[in-house]
């Protein structure tokens, strides 16, 4: 008897059903934590019944993609650090190890990135030997491990144009939903339960959108780093006119929402992305479009209350934050001092915020909440894990941009470059990016876009060589 005929095989509907089941557990778990326990028996059931582990792995992957964007909103009430995403990572790892069809050969093209990521994780772990606070160090190392695994997930699963298209569609839906939520916040002053706008009350916070994230800066960079992916998808839809209309609406609404966050780096990064994408798509026609639309746009800005409000927000964001700028300069000075005093070996993974807080106060505060983030990922990394750790992490970005500039990909699309640029902006704007999974995930996605293009070019070159060889053979 052929037992292969008896093996359980997923249909597309069944894959979606498993994904919905896992997400439902996350939603129910946010209401009543006991529902999270259901993940264990469900996993065991699928393993015991000899489920096709490859299909289960794919279902877990897509659930992780959705869960990482919603984060703490799929968590236990009062325990926002325990949520569905963190349950699914070990679940994915277990199923991956049980799966005999492990596609390790396709990962070889990502070898340099794996080397840099592993070195970054190792330097973080080694620095624990001289860290003052081991719990803070373990917390830091866990986030670095999460980053490494997110990169692995993308490298492993995004192995074709089909998978990339599915991911782009999911991101587009999440992006559009976030835009609608942001608009609703601006118009009503209502915010999600975990929004910082419910905690830090200022003269403008009531109508500053935060979406499904904690603060306005996070939300601005969230929209900015997703925008190139969404714009590329919309501008390459089969129904071209529909795609262009959706792109235009999405661009206008995104600019409005980002301006409403008062985020300077968000406005700059989005403005650069929007201009580059526009001219990449429309090229010479773009100048004609701008020439025709400029008078109308200019009049709307100077003659309407809406336009005046937008100008006032932009002006305020760039001129009324001198105190914030001076505070950051002081933080950067102290961060470099911390790194220098450790002889650029770092004071131990995750220990910089505690040390920084002590330097600002003038004394050590043993309170668990007594810490100050550096608002500069690179200087904070230098202070935490030293020059070698910083170099290991920095090489990920250096290798990415080196491959990108040498690949010719920019002739096809600016998306990976804009992702890289936005990430760099976020790294010096946000209080911390180590915990911002969406940033690292989209960065890994950008790397996969580039590698997929390089794979296609290599395949095309191989085909050309084969044709040339066959031609020469026939001639001989």
Order of helices and strands: HHHEEHHHHHHHHHHHHH
The gross shape turns out to be: globular
> First CA to last CA: what distance?
52 Å
How many domains in all? 3
Number of strands: 2
Query: Main beta sheet, described?
Result: 2 strands, antiparallel
Provide the low-confidence segments as ranges. Answer: 1-10
What is the number of helices? 16
Helix content: over 70%
Class computed from helices, strands and strand pairing: mainly alpha
- What share of the residues does DSSP label as strand, in percent? under 5%
C-alpha Rg (nearest Å):
24 Å
Mean pLDDT, as a whole number? Answer: 83
What strand line-up does the widest sheet have? 1-2
Structure summary:
This protein has 16 helices and 2 strands.
What does the model show?
The chain contains 16 helices and two strands. It is mostly helical. The protein has three domains: 1-102, no CATH class; 105-157 and 322-457, no CATH class; 161-320, no CATH class. The chain has a two-stranded antiparallel sheet. Strand 1 and strand 2 (79-83) form a beta hairpin. Helix 1 (12-31) packs across helix 3 (53-70), helix 3 (53-70) runs antiparallel to helix 4 (84-98) and helix 5 (111-126) packs antiparallel against helix 14 (377-407). The chain is globular. Residues 1-10 have low confidence and may be disordered. Keywords: Membrane, Transmembrane, Transmembrane helix. InterPro entries: O-antigen_ligase-rel_domated, WaaL-like. It is found in: Membrane. It is a multi-pass membrane protein.
């Amino acid at each position: 008897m052929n037992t292969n005929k008896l093996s359980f095989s997923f249909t597309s509907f069944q894959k979606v059903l498993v994904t919905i089941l896992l997400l439902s557990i996350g939603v129910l778990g946010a209401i009543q934590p006991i529902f999270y326990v259901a993940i264990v028996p469900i996993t065991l059931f699928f393993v015991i019944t000899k489920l096709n582990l490859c299909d289960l792995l794919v279902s877990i992957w897509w659930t992780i993609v959705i869960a990482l964007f919603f984060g703490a909103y799929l968590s236990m009430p009062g325990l926002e650090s325990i949520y569905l995403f963190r349950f699914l990572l070990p679940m994915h790892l277990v199923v991956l190890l049980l799966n005999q069809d492990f596609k390790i050969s396709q990962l070889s093209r990502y070898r340099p990135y794996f080397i840099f990521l592993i070195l970054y994780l190792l330097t973080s772990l080694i620095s624990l030997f001289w860290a003052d606070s081991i719990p803070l160090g373990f917390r830091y190392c866990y986030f670095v491990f999460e980053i490494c695994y997110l990169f692995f997930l993308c490298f492993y699963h995004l192995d074709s144009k089909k998978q990339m298209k599915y991911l782009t569609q999911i991101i587009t839906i999440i992006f559009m939903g976030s835009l609608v939520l942001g608009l609703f916040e601006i118009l009503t002053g209502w915010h999600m339960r975990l929004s910082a706008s419910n905690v830090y009350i200022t003269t403008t916070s009531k109508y500053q959108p935060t979406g499904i994230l904690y603060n306005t800066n996070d939300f601005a960079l969230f929209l900015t780093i997703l925008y190139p992916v969404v714009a590329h998808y919309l501008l390459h839809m089969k129904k071209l006119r529909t795609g262009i209309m959706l792109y235009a609406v999405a661009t206008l609404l995104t600019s409005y929402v980002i301006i409403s966050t008062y985020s300077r780096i968000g406005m700059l990064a989005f403005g650069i992305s929007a201009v580059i994408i526009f001219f990449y798509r429309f090229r010479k026609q773009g100048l004609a479009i701008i020439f025709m639309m400029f008078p109308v746009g200019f009049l709307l800005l100077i003659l309407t209350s809406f336009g005046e409000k937008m100008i006032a927000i932009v002006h305020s964001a760039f001129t009324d934050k001198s105190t914030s700028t001076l505070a950051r300069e002081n933080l950067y000075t102290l961060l470099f001092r911390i790194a220098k005093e450790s002889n650029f070996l770092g004071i131990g993974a995750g220990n910089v915020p505690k040390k920084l807080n002590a330097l600002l106060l003038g004394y050590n505060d043993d309170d668990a909440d007594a810490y100050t983030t550096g608002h500069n990922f690179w200087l904070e990394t230098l202070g935490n894990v030293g020059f070698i750790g910083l170099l290991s992490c920095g090489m990920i970005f250096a290798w990415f941009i080196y491959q990108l500039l040498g690949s010719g990909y920019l002739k096809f699309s600016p998306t990976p470059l804009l992702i890289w640029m936005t990430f760099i902006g976020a790294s010096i704007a946000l209080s911390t990016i180590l915990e911002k999974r969406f940033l690292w995930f989209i960065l890994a996605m950008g790397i996969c876009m580039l590698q997929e293009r390089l794979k296609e070019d290599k395949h095309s070159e191989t085909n050309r060589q084969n044709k040339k060889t066959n031609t020469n053979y026939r001639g001989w």
